[in-house]
Amino acid sequence: AIGVVSTYNSHPVVLASAYGALRHMLKNDVVGHAQRMESVMVDGFNTLLERHASVKQARVIGMFGGFDVQKNRRGGVVAQGE
């Protein structure tokens, strides 16, 4: 009988690349760097929020950020749904 064979589940190349990525992240303190840079992202998103009336809300976690867009600060929407 032939077992389950795939190109991604426990494949040596995939495991080697994952191991290399983890080694790089640990050696270069990628997570710590993201934590330290969060304040820069927060400042940038707050500046965006202050300067553009169409930005309703901004949020950041680490190096991941997002913002909500609206027509204006009076509560209008960008586009009406159908």
Shape: elongated
Helical content stands at 40-55%
The main sheet orders its strands as: 1-2
Oligomer category: single chain
The largest sheet, given as strand count, sense and whether it forms a barrel, is: 2 strands, antiparallel
Q: Beta-strand level of the residues, as a percent range? A: 15-25%
Structural class: alpha+beta
Strands, total number: 2
Low-confidence stretches: none
- Count of helical stretches: 2
Radius of gyration of CA atoms, rounded to a whole number: 21 Å
Kindly report the average pLDDT value. 83
What are the secondary-structure elements, in order, as H or E? Answer: HHEE
Report the end-to-end length measured between terminal Cα atoms.
56 Å
Q: Which terms summarize this structure?
A:
alpha+beta; elongated; two-stranded antiparallel ribbon; 2 helices; 82 residues
Summarize the helices and strands and which ones pair or pack:
Elements: H1 12-27, H2 30-51, E1 55-61, E2 64-69
Antiparallel strand pairs: 1-2
Give a summary of the structure in a few sentences.
With 82 residues, this protein is an alpha+beta fold. The chain is built from 2 helices and 2 strands. The longest helix is centred in the middle third of the chain and has 22 residues, at 30-51.
Tell me what the structure shows.
Helices cover 46% and strands 16% of the residues. It is α+β, with helices and mostly antiparallel strands. The relative contact order is 0.10.
